[in-house]
TrEMBL record:
SUPFAM superfamilies: Actin-like ATPase domain (SSF53067). InterPro entries: ATPase_BadF, ATPase_NBD, Euk-type_GlcNAc_Kinase. Its EC number is 2.7.1.59. GO terms for molecular function: N-acetylglucosamine kinase activity. The keyword Transit peptide does not apply. Keywords: Kinase, Transferase. This is N-acetylglucosamine kinase Nagk. Pfam families: BcrAD_BadFG.
């Protein structure tokens, strides 16, 4: 019998899924992060080996019976990163087919239940991906917080802090954001925001963590409303660009990340704007988990041309 493994290597934990040739789940194990940039190569190698040993020993199968593995990992952003992951698998003795992608790719496949389509991810950062008619992967956005991240939690939080400072010096109208954010950050005056933002390491996640406050004030504060609408504008452009790259008007696009999965306001406005121009585009929350997307790639249910 042939076996397949799909791996969702997130930033905080990793899900390993063993499946048969039809993609039916046989077993799952959840272990710590396999982001080698954070954990180191040796610890990442040990985690992957422990997971594979768990499957082979529990199911009494050989390593050679695992015919294909798809690894989708956070921090896999270059060919060098892919080579590092490949070498880790080779070092533990795995020699069969191995596909390595950023975790956003397996999220795309899982979100669309194994069918070609696209995904918009908006959490701390933002990125869009779509598989076109020739099975090629196309990327939109995802260029980091300095160059991009439009419509993300970081974008929303940064804009809120910027508006507060502009209100402080007289360039922006009064906003309810200040009182809420002051309480969240436990600061006493606006100038303490400078120390918060420009400390040694930019607190991207902390800034993104302010986004729920902005969204909560959408119907109560003009400044908050403008920020949210600007975020929706950015995400709408990303979706429309994905549609263009997909070369088809009836594609399916999954929504992923906390800004889109937890905020009805942003999600509903995005869907409304896109469908007003592209009524055949199906925009939806993820149908399945990212690790199932990895299984679908490993079993070749979904083929991606690099």
């Amino acid at each position: 019998m042939s076996y397949y493994i799909g791996i969702d290597g997130g930033g905080t934990s990793t899900i390993f899924c063993l499946a048969d040739c039809n993609g039916n789940v046989i077993d799952i194990i959840k272990l710590k992060s396999t982001n080698y940039h954070v954990m180191g190569i040796e610890e990442t190698k040990e985690t992957i080996k422990n997971a594979i040993d768990f499957f082979t020993e529990k199911k009494s199968i050989s390593l050679n019976e695992i015919k294909s593995i798809c690894f989708g990992g956070s921090g896999v952003d270059s060919e060098k990163c892919k080579e590092t992951i490949i070498n880790i698998f080779r070092d533990i003795g795995y020699r069969n087919e191995l596909q390595v992608y950023n975790d956003s790719v397996i999220a795309l496949v899982g979100a669309n239940d194994g069918y070609n389509g696209g995904i918009i991810i908006s959490g701390t950062g933002s990125v869009g991906l779509v598989i076109d008619k020739k099975n090629r992967l196309n990327k939109v956005g995802g260029w980091g917080h300095i160059l991009d991240d439009g419509g993300s939690g970081y974008f929303i939080g940064r804009e809120a802090l910027s508006k507060i400072m502009k209100n402080y010096d007289g360039r922006e109208c009064k906003t309810l954001l200040w009182d809420k954010i002051r309480e969240k950050l436990k600061i006493n005056n606006q100038e303490e925001i400078i120390n918060f933002v420009y400390k040694d390491k930019l607190p991207k996640k902390d800034i993104a963590g302010l986004a729920p406050i902005v969204i909560e004030l959408y119907n109560k504060d003009k400044v908050a409303k403008d920020i949210v609408n600007s975020a929706v504008d950015s995400l709408t452009i990303m979706v429309e660009t994905l549609i263009e790259k997909a070369q088809g008007a009836d594609i399916s696009i999954g929504l992923y990340g906390s800004i889109l999965t937890k905020s009805n306001i942003i999600r509903d406005k995005l869907i409304e704007r896109v469908n007003s121009k592209h009524p055949k585009v199906n925009i939806h929350l993820p149908y399945k988990e990212a690790y199932i997307g990895a299984v679908d790639i490993a079993t070749r249910r979904v083929k991606i041309q690099n």
